[in-house]
Amino acid sequence: MAIGFNFRLIFCSWIVIACSNLNSWAEDQIFLKKGDPVKGEIQEIKDGKVLVKLAAGTIPYPLDTIERVIMEERPSYHEGADAAASGDENKAIKILKPLVDKYIGLEVGWVADAAVYLAESYAKKGKTFKAEQLAEQILSLYRGSEYEVQGNVVTARLAFVKGDLEKAAILTEKLIQENTPKDEPIPDESKTRLLSSLTFQRAQIQEKKGQKADALESYLKVALIYSKPQSRAQAAQKRADLLRKDNKDLTVN
pTM to 2 decimals? Predict the structure, then answer.
């Protein structure tokens, strides 16, 4: 009786563990130019091939045979993006670099976003050469796609970090105008994150120029409208509160 019970307990435990391992896989979808879609976990891009983990093993698919992919956001992406937005560049670089190294080139919104956050973190740490290299890589790998804009975002950020406020302002305003949806009052999450980054930078430029009312308005827009990631929204709210504290008569139209 005890032996039978123990066997059933061990067998059930094995089933639970096996199911947990299956559920731990990311459920990515690869749509091929020819053939049926493939479901599995994208491991990385290597030598021009996308390595996909399937039940039968890891299979390489050449990039030029893939029409598009739907790829689950990896948990570390959010952790790294939040670290970058909150000003913890060392943590952001540590988390985001492995992700970017593995996935850059895939036409997936969060992958391109991760590359921008990594480049921004490099720039803030004074590693401008690495940031410039990454900007060029983004522009090259995503040329002609909707994610090419991310390389220009990094270029604008670098201008700000180097103290070229006029160039940074011109690039940032151009990008905001081009990427603000005209007919959608609430942009999707990818656009929200992009506009959060750009509008926060606009606020920083305005504050540097002494345009405190404009800066306050921009910070509040990040805190209340373009509020993803949450850590950047919180940073924007903090800057807005400090501006109000130091300038009692400051108002927003």
Answer: 0.77
Q: What are the 10-residue block averages of pLDDT along the chain, 253 residues in total?
A: 48 43 67 94 95 93 93 92 89 97 92 91 93 94 88 92 94 95 79 90 96 96 90 91 91 78
Angle made by CA atoms 32, 25, 227, in degrees to the nearest 5 = 90
Q: Which two tokens stand for residue 23?
A: 């559920």
In angstroms, the CA 105 to CA 94 distance is: 20
Q: How far apart are CA 146 and CA 139, in angstroms?
A: 11
Return phi, psi of residue 22, to 5°. -65, -40
Tell me the C-alpha to C-alpha distance, in Å, between residue 157 and each of 56, 64, 85, 198.
Answer: 44, 32, 13, 9
The SS3 call for residue 67 is strand
